[in-house]
Amino acid sequence: MKRAETQIDQLANQWVKDQAASYPSFATSIGYPGGEGDMDDYSPEALAKEQSDIKALISKLEALSPVDEVDLVTKEAMLFSLNGEIETYDSGLAFRSLNNIASPAQGVRDVFDLSPTATVQDWENLVLRMSKVGESLRGYARSLEEGAKRNDAPALRQISEVIAQVEQITTADGFFHTFANSAKSESGELPESLKKELAKAAESATAGYAEFGEYLKGLLPRSTSPDAIGRERYQILSRRFLGATVDLDETYEWGKEELARVVAEQTAVANEILPGATVAEAVKHLENDPSTKLHGTEALQKWMQKLSDEAIEKLSGSHFEIADPIKKLECMIAPTQHGGIYYTGPSDDFSRPGRMWWSVPVGVEEFDTWRETTTVYHEGVPGHHLQVAQATYIRDTLNAWRRLSSWTSGHGEGWALYAERLMQDLGFLSNPADRLGMLDGQRMRAARVVLDIGVHLGKQNLEGTGVWDFDYALNFMKSNVNMSPEFVRFEVTRYFGWPAQAPSYKVGQRIWEQIRDDYAARKGANFDIKEFHKTALNLGGLGLDTLRSAMARA
Fold this sequence. Notes:
three-stranded mixed beta sheet; globular
């Protein structure tokens, strides 16, 4: 039964429409029509206008009274999120937003991964979109310049990393040239005139990135910012990424304890694989096992898809209610080689399915299935895909903001990490090698709670020989994960440039488990974990403080 739309729903729905109109990349990501030939405006003027719009929305929202539980949750979640946006802008962080994984430097290119390409009209839109890449990057550069004028430019390390990424994009066979050259519609080849327009637009987009790269080279000597952003700014970002306020010092100490606990568990599993072995010895044993090897990205993609399809089939009905549109998940090799694995949600009408992307670093050709099985569950089902696609699906209950726009890293990534453990509990990781891989991921997430907070709060390193710096952090991660040196370096650089995001996974998992345990204690003999998961996921994307209060009433 469809829920009647309330005034709070109307406000939330209009906000999604306004954001889609202001940010074409957001419209593309959620599958809203309009803006297909446009790029986002990252200029100082656009950032200032957004703040004005947010303040007006907060004022309207505060004046409305919830009529039911759904309204109560929406209002609480929106106010937490919107006030976090204001706090972030006022701190100056918006004018130094540059890192190696999740800043406009990547976002300008990434929108093309989700842009429709099925028809001639789609490619005509992409001619326009590519021709506006340079304009978008120039606006972004002006915002970075505002930060630089305040002696608050991004850290040198992040500027250097993005310059290297720009150099990948601007080669003769860089992204835009390759993208345009591969263009075809579902009906076949494109008209020659359109191919020429695409080639010209690709040249323009590539030149836009080259110009941006030159700006960054000029910014390099002007950066005096340390890697660490300090406690005040870190607390702001922590609240944003978690949707909750936590005690950073207590969380740091918990992170050390959790790391030690996972190491002990991992050691026990290593002994199951090879009696008397250390974790490193068990890993070496597995790495020499040809039966767990995948060679090349084509083999990786096929294996990911098969494992994902099997998980959906086995979990559907028995452990989760999975609607038919949600059962389609595409596993993709990303067109970039920056490193990282990520998920993109379906469009609002599911015409574009959810997708799991693997950005394989240059030179990485070999993959271990025991290490990556848990990654497929994290990004797919019951992880991100089930969570995000389920929220998208339940349009009869939730407004558009709750379904399509309300994403909090602690909620989303915390659920995905919770899902990895859940798959062990459900018997999907009965092979000790797969459990070792899952624990390797859990260990990495625990380690980066300690690293991230240690770095940005300027804490003494674990040996007490000085504060956390890059070399110490890199060695710390190398000793706690079993991954390629390229991937580890990319990850540590990410933590230095995207403060508070990496801990949101493990801290989010901690809060999810606390919420589940509180719910179970309250329900007593009537506790049903399947019902818990259904109730929690049907709330849509929320900050974790809001999730906690909503589930306390469920």
